[in-house]
Amino acid sequence: MLIHSATQLLTLAGGPQRGAALGDLGLIEDGAVVIQEDQIVAVGKTGELESLYPREPKLDVSGRVVLPGFVDAHTHLVWAGDRAGEFEQRLVGKSYLEIQAAGGGILSTVRATRSASTEALVSQTLARAQTMFAFGTTTAEAKTGYGLDTPTELRLLAALLEVSARGPLEIEPTFLGAHAVPPEFAGDPQGYTDLVCTEMLPAARNWWEANAPSLRLPFADVFCEAGAFDLAQSRQILETARGLGFPLKIHADEFEALGGAQLAAELGAFSADHLAVTPPEEIAALAASETVAVALPCTPFGLASPRYTPARAFIEAGGLLAIASDINPGTGWCESMQFVIALACRFLRLTPAQAVAAATINAAAAIGRSGEIGSLEPGKQADLIILSAGDYRHLGYRFGTNLVQAVIKNGQFHLSRENL
Which of 150, 161, 162, 356 counts the highest number of beta carbons within 10 A? Predict the structure, then answer.
């Protein structure tokens, strides 16, 4: 297929964008892209590619923007049930940590998820995944973490693989057995930390090698936060995971700065996520590393909190910045990366161009996939979206509606709105 006459074709070519370079869209006016099978084979001006590929079937996208599919680099996509009641509790003054201490929060979802069948988990997760795809997300990282025991965490891995296999959303799994301390270990976070290290991580690796031997090991993650895992426990979990071959991620500095960002840089984690209260010296440490800082603006928005990731500080320090939805049942049930971009423009003070780059090529880097997805370049996976708007700045400018007219995933055409 030759997709041609795009008012704006955003290529995002050249790899992840660091510091002041964030927002280089590689914009081509009257742009075109050629797809053969599941790959991009050419990008350029319409007239040039029409001459070079005269026999390709054509799709006229006049008046529209074409850009890479969004990459959602941080999600908690697989769970059962909801926490609408807790949303109401927060509105009348209860804090997130107070609700969690009373047995709500993550542990409420853990109870629902443990009792759900794998089939029910797949069904509920697939519905969310299809909505994400309709809003333009073509690849998403997705974490376990609502089982907090070995059998359920392995079932969550199985559910994620099944959802990815059914598609069209492609999922990069993360093992997050260290999401919270389960009720069986109440008051004993070190005991649970030891269980994660001695039983759960080895079991996850063995299960993966038996059930998905052709795929890269999932990421391993830990919630380094007050009320969850302290810095020493987080280090123990991540170092154990690294020794088993898992690539690393970390939740850090959402409510308190415990040193998780510095730990991520030291251990070479692919990303450190949340980072709402990261101190300047740790911003500098992350910026000097290859670890991507992933901001999650839906979470403070969902909590009505003023503490958003200081994104400008990461940019000014020369760091790699991405944005993601953090879709979860407690604080940010949002399937739309378009809304994430809108929040990033308003509360992280990103320009629309910076937010688009943070949601595509830099988000791909946060999940170790920037060589395959996140930009429109020859040889890359043919994942792209067509907007119903003619100017990319409508992403960010507009919110609460779906600007994605069509999605192409692995070269396959999916209509999400009116016919082209």
Answer: 356
Q: E strand or H helix at 51, and its extent?
A: helix 46-52
320 strand-pairing partners: 18
3-state class (DSSP) for residue 390: coil
Give the up-direction half-sphere exposure of residue 150: CA atoms within 13 A in the CB hemisphere: 16
Question: How far is the first Cα of the chain from the last one, in angstroms, to the nearest whole number?
Answer: 14
**Amino acid at position 40, single letter:** I
Beta strands in 243-288 (DSSP E): 249-252, 271-274
What is the Cα–Cα distance from 299 to 328, expressed in whole angstroms? 9
Q: Where are the alpha helices (DSSP H) in 167-267?
A: 189-195, 201-211, 231-243, 260-267
CB distance 311 to 350 below 8 Å: yes
Backbone angles phi, psi at 108, to 5 degrees: -65, -45
Q: Nearest to residue 288, comparing CAs of 265, 310, 272?
A: 265
List pLDDT tens digits, range 139-151: 999 999 999 999 9
Structure tokens at 297: 């603006």
Reported as a pLDDT band with limits 50, 70 and 90, residue 416 is low
Tokens of 403: 């600007």
CB 141 within 8 A of CB 112: no
Residue among 197, 132, 133, 72 nearest 413 (CA): 133
Structure tokens at 206: 């063995």
pLDDT reported for residue 99: 84
From residue 68, alpha-carbon distances to 208, 254, 257, 381, 388 in Å are 30, 29, 34, 10, 15
Alpha helices in 116-200 (DSSP H): 118-134, 150-166, 189-195
